[in-house]
Amino acid sequence: MKRVIAINGGPRKSWNTGALLRRALDGAESAGAATETVHLYDLNFRGCVSCFSCKRVESYRNGRCAMNDDLSQVLEKVMASDAAIMGSPIYLSDVTGELRSFFERLIFMNLAYDPKERSITDKKISCGLIYTMNIPENAAKERGYTAMFESHAGMMKILGGSVEYMTSCDTCQFDDYSKYHAPMFDESHKKAWREKQFPIDCQNAYDMGARLAEISPMRR
C-alpha cells in the first residue's frame, strides 16, 4: 500500500491550508493510499544548525539528520512515504517559518555535495506543494511569487520523484470580518469568491493527492 503524508505548515488545522491538505489526502485515499497528517505548529523543533553530521564520510548516504527533536520522527515518516504533500499560508511573501525550517532539515540531509550526484537518497518520493494567500492571483504574480514556488519545487526534486504545486488565492482570513480592523478587504467579495473558487481549489487538491498516490516509487 502506498503511503502519503501531509505536512501542514500553517498554524490553523482546519482553515484554508488545512482544508486543502485534507482534500489532497482524500484524493490519495481514493487511489488506495494510507495517509497521515502532521501539524508543524504542534511540534518543538528548529531548522538546520549546520552541524554537517549528515555530510561526514562515515555518515554519507545515511540520509538522516543528527538533530534529535520533535521533527526527527516526522523526517523518518517522510522518508518512508511514497509521497509528501506540504502546505503553507503565505506570510510576508513567503511560507511560514515552521515550513521553511522543515524544508531545511528535509532537503539538506538528502543533498549531496557531489556534482555528479546531487541526491543522497536512493528512494524516489513524489512531492506536492499547496500555497494559500489572501491576495489575488494577479497580485501574487506581480510580486514574483511564481519564482518562489518554482524554487521550492526545485528543492523538492532532490527527493527524486515528481513535483507539482498549486495555489489558492484571495482566501478568507476570518469567519467574521466585522470582528477585525481590516478595511482594506471587502468582506462581500471575499465571501463570494470563497463560495465560487474554494470548491475548485479543493477539487484541484483532491486531484493532486490522487495523482501523487498513483505514481509508483522507483529506486535509483
Brief overview:
With 220 residues, the chain is an alpha/beta fold.
What low-confidence regions span 5 or more consecutive residues with pLDDT below 50?
A: none
Report the CATH C-level class.
Answer: Alpha Beta
Helix content: 25-40%
Number of E-type strands: 5
Order of helices and strands: EHEHEHEHHEH
Strand order of the largest sheet: 2-1-3-4-5
CATH H-level superfamily title: Flavodoxin domain
Number of domains: 1
CATH topology: Rossmann fold
- Name the average pLDDT: 92
Architecture, according to CATH? Answer: 3-Layer(aba) Sandwich
Summed up, the helix count is: 6
Distance between the termini: 20 Å
Rg over CA atoms: 18 Å
Computed structural class = alpha/beta
- Main beta-sheet strand count, sense and barrel state: 5 strands, parallel
Outline? globular
Percent of residues in beta strands? 15-25%
Describe this structure in words.
The chain is α/β, with parallel strands linked by helices and 220 residues long. It has a single domain, classed as Flavodoxin domain (Rossmann fold). It contains six helices and five strands, in the order βαβαβαβααβα. The chain has helices at 16-30, 70-79, 97-108, 137-142, 145-156, 187-214; strands at residues 3-8, 34-39, 83-89, 125-132, 160-168. It has a five-stranded parallel β-sheet, sandwiched between helices. The two termini are 20 Å apart. 35% of the residues are buried.
